[in-house]
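Bug #2210: token dump truncated for Glutamate decarboxylase?
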Amino acid sequence: MTHDPSVLAPTFTRTAVRGVAPRNTMPDGEMDPSSAYQIVHDETMLDGNARLNLATFVATWMGDEADRLYAESFDKNMVDKDEYPRTAAIEENCWRILASLWNVPDVTDSIGTSTIGSSEACMLGGLAFKRRWQIARRAAGKSTEKPNLVMSSAVQVCWEKFCNYFEVEMRLVPITEEHPTLDGAQIEQYVDENTIGVVAIMGVTYTGMYEPVKEIAEALDALQEKTGLDVPIHVDGASGAMIAPFLQPAIEWDFRLERVHSISTSGHKYGLVYPGVGWVVWRTLDALPEELIFRVSYLGGDMPTLALNFSRPGAQVLLQYYQFLRLGHEGYTAIQQECQDVAKYLAKGISDIGAFELWNDGSDIPVFAWRLKAGYTDKWNLYHLSDRLRMKGWLVPAYPMPDNLNDLTVQRIVVRNGLSRDLGDELLEDIRVETAWLDALTSPMPVEGQKPGFHH
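Reproduced locally. Full output below:
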């Protein structure tokens, strides 16, 4: 039996590793698996350190037991309920747990599903709105042309995608200094008979602030009394739906409000699971039109499917159930509270520096943003501070606010599980040092080529 001598050679002297890996074409021959591993492994070393990425909401740490469970379930296909019936049952356990957490009136009369992330969950919530509106309009003999969806100008880009892909007019209520979130004050100007729903955000991506869902519902109640228009709400709780039940249980934002028809969240954000998994739950069975549920024959079984994707990983669903079992209400409360405590600690430290003014302080979800004080300096801006921090390994994005406030630049920090008080103190010290360095400049920093550090 012959052996390839390059396999026994020192790792970085092997033929495959000594060359440049192909980028755009399939290689002609095979490669030793350890060499292929080394090439891919080394390329990913150029990525940032996920733990120091304060731009992302996505979970970057779970623990040894979760990692082992993940490795044991890489191959599970979520859609194949015939082969993986227990995984399918665990998926149902999870969305029913969430329905109960969100105060659904009757968990047996609700329906939900896992998704790849909360963007897909939002798409499904929007599709249910559009289809229910179309059914009602057809029954009344009215046109189903020109549906629209009302939301804040600070929504995440997934809603822009939904409106684009599914041909719905996107009606954006601009945020302002006086109205930093959608609060119902101007909603009557945007809603009409073609409005399929209103989106309320529990944790605005730009700043982390909650939109007051109850006030939005009350504004829609008043509008219905005045005009007869009955407009439902979808709560985009990508982050806040896994924070508010534990840290602010008295806030009425969920299924306690009759006008809330559906809620979505990211399991891979403050649900504390690796990417990517999301969830969407409808208040009642009839809130989701039956025609959006497909019953298919697949790999020997007959199964309902409710998702934009078909085959998709089942591992993250198992990880979500693991977290529910592992942490329970007490554990989630402890983790989310610690994240919020760290966020408020950092926010205070940054406000004490003197150069900055807080937009919010992390009292909603553990996310906060700040801006440079007006007239503070003409030598540098927040993009320069972001670049200086990146040199030390921290990713702290700077970006403009949405329309009507897009001349305002902010920086934002997302505090996730794993950003300890000790690490936070290191970050604060680096911000102080780099701010002092920028303040000591005797001439302005160049601004050519600056671009937002995060896209919404």
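Output looks complete on our side. The CA atoms of residues 213 and 253 lie 5 Å apart. Marking as cannot-reproduce; reopen if the truncation happens again.
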